[in-house]
Amino acid sequence: MIKVIIIDDEPLATEIVIEYLAVFDQVHILAVCHDGFAGLKAIKEYEPDLIFLDVQMPKITGFEMLELLENPPAVIFTTAYDEYAMKAFDTHAIDYLLKPFSQSRFEKAMEKFLKNGERQIVEFDQNISKLELNGPSERIVLKDKHDIKIIPFSEIQFLEANDDYVNIYTMEGKFLKNKTMKFFENVLDTKMFVRVHRSYIVKITEITKIETYEKDSYILKLKSGATIPISKSGYPKLKSVLGV
Amino acid sequence: MGVAYLVHTFGPGLGTAALDVALHTFLLILAYFFLENIFRYYTPQDRQFLIFLSFPLVVSIMIFYLGKYSIELIFLHQQSYLEFVKEIQFVRLFVIFLMVLGYALLLLFHSKLETQLKIRERAEQIDRLVKEAELFQLRQQLQPHFLFNSLNSISSLVKRKPDEAREMVLQLSEFLRKTIRKENQKWISVLEEIEYLQLFIGIEKVRFGHRLEVEYQIAEECKSLRLPQLLVQPLMENAVKHGLYGVLGDVLIKVRFECQDEYLFISISNPFDSMAGQASGESFGQQAIRRRLFLLFGRNDLFKTQSHKEEFKVELKIPQNYDQSYYH
């Protein structure tokens, strides 16, 4: 038995997937969801083998939903998104179906899944959210205990490396996200954020003071009261962004 | 120098003549400077030729007298030269006037040319922006989100509900036809605009019918008012998009058309979540509309966006006492 969940915010779009799936006897559709939140819940509950996933959906995108899963099921994307964004991840998902798609194209995608059998870990290109042209990408979606938290880039005060994770500091406190510093260095606006240290990225409007710590070494004071070390290579970067 | 020598041949010493010429050259430069400043701020209209003439006249008389008194002061002890100067003073006045007038004409010509250039530049800019807006509009409607999703809906309906599929095909065709209509150089009536909006919403409702609701409030007396094309629909599309993707649950879009004094007032609101971290600031579509309104009416206060806690609203004012036959 293959457990399947369909996640798409347009009812007609889910109906055609159901219609096409009818020829696969071994498939059981356990849930049809219309947004990422419902999708997350259903995935947790049913632990599906395969999900059909739309990209642009209410509140969080399909990509953002997947990022929140620790052990994501196999994914076939069904979306009208243009190929530009699609190319970035076509090696990672089982397949992507560009709407509208034919039954034979759909069956090809299913064959791919069946051949690969078993679950398959979906990996994502770290730059994917930059490529989402129309989707809101100026934000981070993460899990905060049981809630899902959406943090706009504008609310970030600073970032701190924490092994494979990054601590995100905002007015509301500290949040954990499983991405690298390199990733954030790439996606954040370089006019607003500076990597002042191997372990720190700071928003320049948060800075209140640059203090000499010892000879040739400096520290930053932030509005929130936090103190951040500046590395030797970070100091000239900071100076050039601040224009001093 | 040449002039000084010329004067010298009439009798006075070379030094005296050179001094005289230098003095008047200086005065003329002063006058040119003065005129230039006047014409920088004042461009005479076609029928004000007398006013235009009066400037150089006044200026040249001023120079003439200034020159005359200066000469009388400087050459106090050269009686013969003073007499010579007096003899030719009207010739001198005339020459000064001619020179000043010539320069004034040059300035006038230059400023006229500049105005012409500015007007043409503005017209070109408007042309370009209209084209940009049209292109943007086309891209919007002809690209994945709208067209392909609509086609996908049709594909989904075609087997199970063929009648609805055909209905959708017809709606989509009519909408696309209206979008790419050729004569988009003119204003259309509120009624026509609303028909167009309803067509668009009809299609979106097939896709999102379970969530999307639109409430129209259209004042009877403004149904015949007119507005430029391609202004309201992109805003509607924005509202639908941000409503549908910004919140879970149902989306109510409110559209209002009203008359306010000599304006047609339009507002469109959609629910949104201020905490969702949607990109702040105006979208490309909104900016395009703001710029187009500025170019159409030369005003910056006709387009407003507001976000309250859970509602995003755009407001648009279209001046009605405006030449509507001319699209730009």
From TrEMBL, chain A:
UniProt keyword terms in alphabetical order: DNA-binding, Phosphoprotein
Sequence ranges assigned to domain Response regulatory in this UniProt record: 3-114
Gene3D superfamilies: 3.40.50.2300, LytTr DNA-binding domain
Gene Ontology molecular function, alphabetical: DNA binding
PROSITE patterns named among the record's database cross-references: HTH_LYTTR (PS50930), RESPONSE_REGULATORY (PS50110)
Recorded superkingdom: Bacteria
Domain HTH LytTR-type: 140-244
Positions of modified residues (4-aspartylphosphate): D54
Pfam family, one: LytTR
Protein name: LytTR family transcriptional regulator DNA-binding domain-containing protein
Source species of the chain: Belliella calami
